[in-house]
Amino acid sequence: MDSGARDALTSFYQEVFGLYPGARILDVGAGRLSHYPQGKTWSHVSITGLSEFELQANTQADEFIAHDLNVNPRLPYACSAFDIVTCAVSFNYFVMPLKVMNEIARVLKPGGTIVLSTSNRMFEDKAVNVWRRTRDDVEHCLIYGSYIHYSQAFEPVSARDVSPLLSKLGLSDPMYVIWAT
């Protein structure tokens, strides 16, 4: 995703993180960037993703665990360990999305928030079939929303188009967030 989409996601995170001062946050499907605001309002960030090299480069993380959720969808964290779980433009790569979502529900504290985000970019060879067969942004939001809904662990799902204005002109990537508590 381009800088406009990243900035839009960061602004949304700032809004959500403000609801949880001193939060413990988990970034699932993480890489070298978590796209979190520069002004730290949280107490701890854990990240998990595939590449140990990329996770080591993430300057916002307090700790990281390289873990392939497509091989083992169990998150390597205790129950009710986090206030917020994020997954930036990566949930479409999980081959067992409901199992991963149930794990997210397990590691979230009661009243915690899950925030998924998506754009119009993907690694075609890595995305799951349902994602590749749908090319519409609304359908992608519905897919993410259904993962949250069918986990039966969250309140009703919300979604928002936070795309930068330039995306409406085709000059920037769009950005959509899907979240629930």
**First-to-last CA distance:** 26 Å
Shape: globular
Helix content class: 25-40%
What is the helix tally? 5
Which series of helices and strands comes N to C? Answer: HEEHEEHEHHEE
User: How large, in whole angstroms, is the Cα Rg?
Assistant: 15 Å
Low-confidence stretches: none
**What fraction strand?**
15-25%
The overall average pLDDT, rounded, is: 93
Secondary structure class reads alpha/beta
Give the tally of β-strands: 7
Mind summarizing the main beta sheet? 7 strands, mixed
For the largest beta sheet, what order do the strands appear in spatially?
A: 3-2-1-4-5-7-6
List the helices and strands and how they pair.
Blueprint: H1 3-17, E1 24-28, E2 44-49, H2 52-56, E3 63-66, E4 82-88, H3 97-107, E5 108-118, H4 129-133, H5 137-150, E6 158-161, E7 176-180
Q: Key features?
A:
181 residues; alpha/beta; 23% strand
Please give a quick description of this structure:
The protein is α/β, with parallel strands linked by helices and about 180 residues long. The chain is about 30% helix and about 25% strand. The protein has helices at about 5-15, 50-55, 95-105, 130-135, 135-150; strands at about 25-30, 45-50, 65, 80-90, 110-120, 160, 175-180.
